[in-house]
Design brief:
Structural class: alpha+beta
Number of domains: 2
Shape: globular
Order of helices and strands: HHEEHEHEHEHEEHEEH
Strand order of the largest sheet: 1-2-4-3
Strand content: 15-25%
Radius of gyration: 22 Å
CATH superfamily of the largest domain: NADH Oxidase
Distance between the termini: 56 Å
Number of helices: 8
Bound molecules: flavin mononucleotide
CATH class of the largest domain: Alpha Beta
Largest sheet: 4 strands, antiparallel
């Protein structure tokens, strides 16, 4: 999918909890399986596809499959899971499927029984995937309204912002506002200092790191759409080729005078 198509999917996406009674076709399951394999190969994560997800969920209706989002017990693996999981979500949404990230309202024991979790790995969440009607059901509208009562604008996600955000980062942050997060809490703290964007969450060994990885992908897609190619590093910094900051070392007062004098003599 192109960058533009991913952004279209961001605008189309909302969490879906009412699915059609028809299970996913074999051909779709095969595509999902290939996506899961590709993600695992690229990232070292342990995502797994479960074809019939229905028994493990109460507040979701209809039939659906899910991807169990698993990996090592580290902050980095959780962030990566958010990032890669959301890339699957956006591809599904673009192709007309309904999705929902779930880390709370499911029967974990049933999921453990359905997957084959390697030792020392953790199940962080699942991504539900199924067929949906275009319009939200009454239950879905209720959930949406309840979780979107107090939307946090991106300005409130900034802890430090030492100058006005350039338009390309403003746009990227607008896409972060559209990122799913558990209970829509939008927990990532951002800082913009010395032309560099940095993010972090308070409890890195929780699903807040999934939220951070999801936000990272949305931000990266937004920046790329505005011509800023970059990647998030392991310290939560968005590193770009064209936003590198080269700073002169702090000059002593005397040296500053000398430089000025030299300039005047030229
Ligand atoms: C990591 C994560 C965990 C979530 N867990 C649940 C959950 O347990 N149950 C649920 O109904 N929705 C869950 N959600 C969906 C959020 O409630 C939803 O993304 C948020 O309210 C924003 O709504 P939207 O996705 O429609 O934009 C989760 C989302 C994320 C990213």
């Amino acid at each position: 999918m192109t960058n533009e198509e991913y952004i279209k999917a961001i605008d189309m996406r909302t969490s879906r909890r009412t699915y059609k009674a028809r299970a996913l076709d074999k051909s779709i399951l095969e595509v999902l399986k290939n996506m899961v394999d590709a993600v695992n190969e690229a990232s070292g994560l342990e995502f797994q596809l479960v074809e019939d997800g229905t028994p493990a969920f109460k507040i979701f209706s209809g039939r659906f499959s899910y991807i169990a989002v698993c990996g090592e017990d580290s902050e980095a693996a959780r962030i990566k899971s958010g990032y890669w999981g959301e890339s699957i979500v956006l591809q599904c949404v673009y192709h007309g499927l309904g999705t929902c990230w779930v880390s709370g309202t499911y029967d974990e024991n049933k999921v453990y029984k359905a997957i084959d979790l390697p030792k020392k790995h953790r199940l962080y969440a699942v991504i539900v995937v199924g067929y949906v009607k275009d319009k939200l059901s009454a239950k879905e509208k209720l959930m949406y309204n309840a979780t979107h009562k107090n939307n946090k604008p991106y300005q409130k996600m900034f802890e430090v912002c030492d100058k006005k955000l350039p338009p390309y980062y403003e746009y990227a942050m607008k896409l972060v506002e559209k990122a799913p997060s558990a209970t829509n809490r939008r927990p990532v703290h951002f800082r913009y200092e010395d032309d560099i964007i940095k993010g972090y969450v308070d409890e890195p060994y929780s699903d807040k790191s999934l939220d951070f990885g999801i936000a990272q992908l949305h931000f990266q897609l937004g920046a790329a759409a505005k011509g800023i190619k970059g990647e998030w590093d392991n310290n939560g910094r968005f590193c770009t080729e064209n936003a590198k900051v080269i700073k002169f070392p702090e000059a002593e007062n005397d040296e500053k005078v000398n430089i000025q004098e030299d300039n005047e003599n030229e």
